[in-house]
């Protein structure tokens, strides 16, 4: 995963690639950095630190907070939303990936695809055999 917000600075910076490992939710402890589906939008992954672990019936839930955020998150993360735990990072390698997701990146990708098509078209035209004239 690529870190896309500053909520975990200085531990994790925008553009860091993080390695994530799946884990049994019952083994997660306070202080662990977890990756989970946002309770507001399941498609958005969030990387925050566990500040409390709760149990209700047979289920586990987590209270979380970004290291850089002044207050804890306003939700409880259910075990079903847990994607995994942070294992390691590769600093800033994901910056290019983040840039390619924006308007400039999309434009660049479209231009590169158009260039490749144009080159392929030109090469296919020049590779066609020329008709020979017989006398």
Notes on the protein architecture:
With 135 residues, this protein is α+β, with helices and mostly antiparallel strands. It folds into two domains: 74 residues, SH3 type barrels (Roll), CATH 2.30.30; 31 residues.
N- and C-termini, Cα separation: 67 Å
Report low-confidence residues grouped into runs of 5 or more: none
Strand content: 25-35%
Q: In CATH's first tier, which class of the largest domain applies?
A: Mainly Beta
**CATH domain fold name of the largest domain:** SH3 type barrels
Query: What CATH architecture of the largest domain would you give?
Result: Roll
Helix count, DSSP H or I runs of 4 or more residues:
2
Structural class: alpha+beta
Total domain count: 2
- The gyration radius over C-alpha positions equals 24 Å
The assembly state of the depicted protein chains is single chain
| Overall mean pLDDT | 89
Total strand segments: 6
**What strand line-up does the widest sheet have?**
1-6-2-3-4-5
Anisotropy-based shape = elongated
Give the biggest beta sheet. Answer: 6 strands, antiparallel
What is the helix fraction of residues, given as a range? Answer: 10-25%
């Amino acid at each position: 995963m690529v870190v896309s917000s500053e909520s975990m600075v200085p531990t994790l910076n925008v553009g860091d690639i993080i390695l994530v490992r799946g884990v049994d939710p019952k083994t997660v402890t306070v202080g662990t950095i977890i990756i989970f589906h946002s309770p507001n939008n399941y498609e958005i992954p969030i990387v925050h630190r566990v500040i409390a672990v709760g149990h209700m019936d047979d289920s586990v839930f987590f209270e979380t907070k970004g290291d850089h955020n002044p207050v804890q998150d306003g939700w409880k993360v259910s075990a079903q939303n847990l994607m995994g735990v942070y294992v390691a990072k590769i600093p800033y390698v994901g910056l290019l990936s983040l840039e390619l997701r924006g308007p400039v990146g999309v434009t660049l990708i479209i231009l590169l695809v158009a260039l490749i098509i144009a080159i392929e078209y030109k090469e296919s035209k020049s590779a066609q055999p020329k008709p020979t004239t017989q006398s």
